[in-house]
Design goal:
alpha+beta; Aminopeptidase; five-stranded antiparallel β-sheet; three-stranded antiparallel β-sheet; 6 helices; Acyl_CoA_acyltransferase; N-acetyltransferase; GNAT_dom; transferase; acyltransferase activity, transferring groups other than amino-acyl groups
Length: about 180
């Protein structure tokens, strides 16, 4: 599955992307904000990530700039218990340029087309920039802050939880038409 937005190309990761993924994510400042990525992040971790089987119900994408194919980060939706969770990371060189919001909008559109009715997300409290991205994407705080394990930190840290209802938006759009 591919998606083209104004500035970005979202595409599946391929095995030949492992070196580029490694160089983009092997930054403790990036990995410490993630729940599932380990620190230190190794070349083997990147090879394993790009070799995972693709599930069309839960796509994950490399985020590349459309003009020069530079790797910006990664984004996707994953099953998390009974929920569908949005996760993403942006390489440090690309922070503050709106790429997470642009890629997030695209993935929300894809999730809606796939029939998902609700998406959840969270951010560690010491990463308020991610919370700002989630709010720009329309996620609302659910009023819960809880400890969440971060493999990158090797410990739990407090995370704020958010949710985005997709089903009501589609149903409202259909009634308005």
């Amino acid at each position: 599955m591919f998606h083209r937005s104004q500035r970005l190309l979202l595409r599946p990761p391929w095995p030949e992307d492992s070196a580029q993924v490694f160089s983009a994510i092997a930054d403790e400042g990036v990995v410490r904000n993630l729940a599932r990525a380990p620190w230190p992040y190794s070349c083997e971790d990147a090879r394993e990530f790009v070799s995972r089987p693709f599930d069309p119900r839960f796509p994950r994408f490399l985020i590349a700039r459309a003009d020069d194919s530079a790797l910006v980060g990664c984004i996707g939706i994953n099953p998390e218990g009974r929920e569908i969770e949005l996760g993403y990371w942006i390489a440090r060189d690309h922070w503050g340029q709106g790429y997470a919001t642009e890629a997030g909008s695209a993935v929300i559109e894809i999730a809606r087309m796939l029939g998902h009715r609700r998406i959840v997300a969270s951010h560690f409290l010491d990463n308020p920039a991610s919370g700002a991205v989630l709010r720009k994407l329309g996620f609302a705080p659910v009023g819960r802050i809880r400890p969440r394990y971060s493999r990158g930190r090797g410990e739990q840290a407090l995370a704020a939880e958010y949710a985005l209802e997709l089903a009501g938006e589609v149903e409202s759009d259909m009634r308005a038409a």
